[in-house]
Amino acid sequence: MDKKKIMICDDDEGIIDVLEMILDEVGHTVISVNDSLKVQAAIDKEQPDLLILDLWMPRLSGQEVLKHLRKHSAHQQLKVIVISASRDGEQVASDAGANQFIAKPFDLNNILESVNALLN
Amino acid sequence: MTMALDASISGIIITDNTQQDNPIIYCNKAFEKITGYSRKEIIGHNCRFLQAQDRNQEERAILGKSIAEGVECRVEIRNYKKNGDLFWNELYMSPVKNANGEVTHFIGVQNDVTSRKNAEHDLRQQKLVMENRIKERTKELRESEAFLSSIIETVREGLLVLDPNFNVLSANNHFLRTFKVSKEETVGRQLYDLGNHQWDIPKLRDLLVKILPTNNPVVDFEVEHDFPHIGKKLMLLNAYRVEFEGQFKDQILLAIEDITERREVEIRKDDFLSIASHELRTPLTTIKGYVQLLERAMPQDASEKFLSTFGKVSVYVERLNSLISELLDVSRIQSGNMELHMAQFDFDNMIAEAVDGMRTTVPGHQIILNGQTGAKVLADESHIAQVVSNLLSNAIKYAPDSEKIEVNIANVSDYVKVSVKDFGLGMSAEDRKKVFERFYRGVEIQKKFPGMGIGLYICDQIIKRHNGTLWVESEIGKGSIFSFTLPKAGKETNG
User: Fold this and answer.
1) Chain A partners of B325 at a C-beta cutoff of 8 Å?
2) Which residues of A touch B316 (CB under 8 A)?
3) Where do the domains of chain B lie, and which CATH numbers do they carry?
4) How far apart are CA B222 and CA B211, in angstroms?
5) How many beta carbons lie within 10 A of that of residue B14, not counting itself?
6) CB B74 within 8 A of CB B94
7) How far is B337 from chain A (nearest CA, A)?
8) pLDDT tens-digit profile of B89-114?
9) Which 3 state secondary structure label does DSSP give B475?
């Protein structure tokens, strides 16, 4: 598999750590942002191939991040996987324009499968 | 003349009022008979001897006055026979005057009216008894009315009684307090004219109008309105035709419950549980992730014990996750906020995935899937899959000594039917009745398998919301079959 640049945006350090470990293990470059207000700037700067985005975050929700990304940014085509522990997360994610939704608690195999599917 | 007087059945005496103390100078046979005295014991006495010791009768004054003034009179007076027996004497006294107009004699005509007096007395007694009874009855009624009105005034629910034209006949204190209105501006006015016409709601009008002709009550009708003094309120209305001793009256009892706060609390509880479940799931996700990372880094030579322990951690992470989901589900079902995302899906696929998922989690059990429907079903797939998984995990949990579980799927009319059969403990008739109730746990079950008793309640609610049916057949020691039906075309009504 090609080495790709994947950005993770989640306010929970534990989740970031787990995702970094698994994605690093399969050879991707991982950049993490734990503050959703900074994610847009980070995307502009790092130009990731894929964004893994949490929904329920303080200050700015993943839903708003995604809506903004799809409407105004130069990265409208950026592949986004939304991960959430909310029951209605799937609906919110698809309405906001996510490519994929994965419920928390997730299975790492599901994460890897989705990442592969979206990047190839 | 004497013979004629003797033939009379009335006792007759004549007194001589020219002599001192007005002695009796004549008495007829009937007088002897009535009094029991003989002529010789009568003549020469004043009439008063008949009164014996009973001298304080008011009638004596009338007699005295009549004699003094020389006028006639009529009295009923207690007299006593020779043998001492009381008799009521109806006495007419009439003066006899001489040519100068002076009273010389009195003629007394007497009748024994004891039996009439007794009858009158009995009647009076009877009347007295009746009056007392009425008094008692009235007191009882007053007491029960007071009892009733103390209830009506104490309940934490506004109550109005309406006449057939929806005019308010009475309003209890709670109603007046809740809506900050006075009795004067409420009683006697039409419901729809009250306040700023807040009760003038077309749907409520429709429902109320039907009560008297059909006796159909209005049950749990929700009204939200912005009231002038008290702000926005959510009301629950119930209305019934008043019934008294089995007879319907032309009156409507309208009960108004303020559920504003209750609804707010329900929403807050839902919000709280949403946040709590979200917050609980986040570290759970991390735990699960680390476990899986460790699993991937598992050394080749790891022991069996090491591997199976790892497997168990995953099982309990899943169990904790489903407990969190169940709590949230129960809260949403209770507050009516369970949302169904209806979409068409391949039913056989969904079942196969649920069965496969369970096979992976509990590889020790043999789950046999029989039949196919080929059906596309319009339902909330994730909720239906949740029901199937719940039935499967119950079948595994409650059949610890049996490894076989049968899943049957079939088309029945315009429904699909799923049955999950285990060969485990089974349950009693009582447990069968209550197994779908919230927080119900069979006594024996609770000893061996602790739990919250909400899984089957949620399943039942989900299937009901889809207009399907969930039921159980079971026998102690032989196992249970949980089955549900689901309309393929989706529930007919929304709501």
Assistant:
1) 87
2) none
3) 2-112 (3.30.450.20), 155-258 (3.30.450.20), 262-338 (1.10.287), 340-495 (3.30.565.10)
4) 17
5) 16
6) no
7) 12
8) 999 999 999 988 889 999 999 999 98
9) strand
